[in-house]
Amino acid sequence: MTYCVAVKLNAGMVFLSDSRTNAGLDQISSFRKMMIYEKADDRFMCLLSAGNLSISQSVREILQIEQLDDHEGGDPITIWNARSMFDAARVLGSAVRHVWHRDGEALQRAGVDFNVSLVFGGQIRGEGMRLFQVYSAGNFIEATPETPFFQIGESKYGKPVLDRVITPETPLDEAAKCALVSMDSTLKSNLSVGLPLDMVVYDANALRCDKIVCIEENNPYFRMVRQTWGRKLREAFDDIEHPTWDDGQTMVPLRCESERLGPLKKITNPREKLI
User: Fold this and answer.
1) CA-CA distance, 82 to 131, in Å (whole number)?
2) Strand, coil or helix: what is 152?
3) What is the strand order of the sheet 3-8 is part of?
4) Secondary structure letter of residue 112 according to DSSP
5) Is 263 exposed, middle or buried (CB count within 10 Å of its CB: 0-12, 13-18, 19+)?
6) For the segment 129-156, what is each residue's pLDDT rounded down to a tens digit?
7) Which stretches of the chain score pLDDT less than 70?
């Protein structure tokens, strides 16, 4: 299992991934889930992967050489000459299907699902930034202003803070901090996600990126984020008033008249009906 998150903002993009891979309770390894493809001043692309490690590694290898026919009669389309991120995502989808045609039947005979999830984003000169989530069939969807981030892997623990904080107008550094809090929430609740982390922060229209970091257990900033987030959550929890069950003084009674429903009815003997 793994956890990866990518965020598309007006100011840029944030990519974050863990590196833990589980092949059983006693087979825990670290494999990086992020790949960066950059031709400075022409294109910057970042790929995140989750799912079956052998499949995702094969997809990344084939992506380097995968080609699509150009319907206008030009050179075959690759991630290095695609004129749009949409076309680059098409190449990635083709690479996924390439692996499926090569290995899918053998995996099925072995009882192994063809399971891979990918997030692919970046910018190519001549257009704005774009972000895609690619599925096991090679099809994909694109991030929108209403849904400016994608998660793959063990996503449920880190989603609430993203939902509350991230909008297209969120500043880039604030989004990076939010992504790290999202990762910390996942690390806290799921042992199948683990350090070290890879993080990339891309400034819009830069067409290159130098904000790349590997975050290990002793990273000062990430340790501060984890400690501060845990402490502030506890303080916020303590600030919430306890529920009041009697006639005590409170401005926020828990027990009050409902417009539609009364309290749950108790069954007190075998003869009573549920309805």
Assistant:
1) 15
2) strand
3) 149-153, 3-8, 12-17, 197-203, 212-215
4) -
5) exposed
6) 999 999 999 999 999 999 999 999 999 9
7) 22-28
Nearest partner of 182 among 218, 221, 215, 225, judged by Cα: 225
C-beta separation of 52 from 114 below 8 A: yes
Please give the single-letter amino acid code of residue 249.
Q
**Amino acid letter, 178:** C
Residue 23 one-letter amino acid: A
- pLDDT, residue 177, reads 98
> Rounded to two decimals, what is the model's pTM?
0.93
What is the full DSSP assignment across 42-54?
A: TEEEEEEEEE-HH
CB 102 within 8 A of CB 56: no
User: What are the φ/ψ torsions at residue 98 (nearest 5 degrees)?
Assistant: -60, -45
Tokens standing for residue 252: 């926020």
Does residue 73 come out as left (phi exceeding 0), alpha (psi in the -120 to 50 range) or beta? left
Contact 1, 154 (CB under 8 A): yes
Distance, CA of 117 to CA of 133 (rounded, Å): 8
Residue 159: enclosing H or E segment and its boundaries?
helix 159-165
Tell me whether residue 132 is exposed, middle or buried, using C-beta atoms within 10 angstroms of its C-beta: 0 to 12, 13 to 18, 19 or more: buried
Looking at this protein, which amino acid is placed at residue 170?
T
Q: Which pLDDT does position 28 carry in this prediction?
A: 66
Distances from the Cα of 100 to the Cαs of 65, 86, 150, 262, in angstroms? 16, 21, 23, 55
Closest CA to 100 of 131, 69, 66, 130: 66
- The answer to whether the beta carbons of residues 135 and 149 sit under 8 Å apart is no
What's phi and psi for 114, nearest 5 deg? -80, 90
